[in-house]
Design a protein that fits this description.
single chain, alpha/beta, Arc Repressor Mutant, subunit A, 2 domains, 8 helices
């Protein structure tokens, strides 16, 4: 295990973990920084991007060079980007971080990205009611995963769900990250095992 990706949605602690690994003497790189990531134009209709019409993605050439360099010690990288799936062949393990919803909302509010109208009550947070929600999958991602399990391409998923192939690709990338798997085949296996292959 030489190259480990630490990923997860915003406010789960990726940057904190990578800083702590660095302090402890490990080779650790935060890929969500301007040295390793940059803004690109995105479909303005895509509501999953950090800014309207813009997405923050990894600089694939630089990240690929970092990951493919020979090394004796493990390398830990952290981040989450729409194009990270393209670099999975150079990653040996993926660690998916999560946090309770109230914690994530509180952290986002502290960063100024969210302004809750009322205090967050942990007791009022809905409990996961299905394997999909316990994995952090949205209803749309569960639908996409079921189609991935059938072996459908992004284009076929798009046609079935009336979304663009690009949007389907984004959903697939996020599903892979949430499941902590490297490819569609592994995602399909998880879907079959947990009964998420029905839609």
């Amino acid at each position: 295990m030489k190259r480990v990706l630490i990923t997860g949605m915003s406010a789960t602690g990726k940057s904190s973990v990578i800083k702590e690994l660095s302090v402890r003497g490990f080779d650790a790189v935060d890929l969500d920084t301007p040295e390793w990531s940059h803004w690109v134009d995105a479909d303005p209709a895509d509501t999953l991007t950090p800014r309207e019409g813009k997405d923050w993605v990894w600089r694939e050439d630089r990240v690929r060079e970092l990951l493919s360099a020979p090394r004796e010690r493990p390398l830990f990288v952290s981040g989450c980007a729409e194009n990270m799936e393209r670099l999975f062949p150079w990653i040996d393990r993926i660690v998916l971080l999560s946090a309770p919803l109230p914690t994530i909302l509180e952290r986002l509010a502290q960063r100024g990205r969210l302004r809750p109208q009322e205090p967050i009550d942990a007791a009022a947070t809905p409990k996961p009611s299905s394997p999909a929600t316990s994995l952090g999958l949205t209803q749309r991602e569960a639908e996409v995963l079921a189609l991935v399990a059938e072996g459908r391409t992004n284009r076929q998923i798009g046609q079935a769900l009336f979304i663009t192939p690009k949007t389907a690709s984004i959903h697939v990338s996020r599903i892979l990250a949430k499941l902590g798997v490297a490819g569609r085949g592994e995602a399909a296996a998880v879907a079959h095992r947990l009964g998420l292959d029905k839609h």
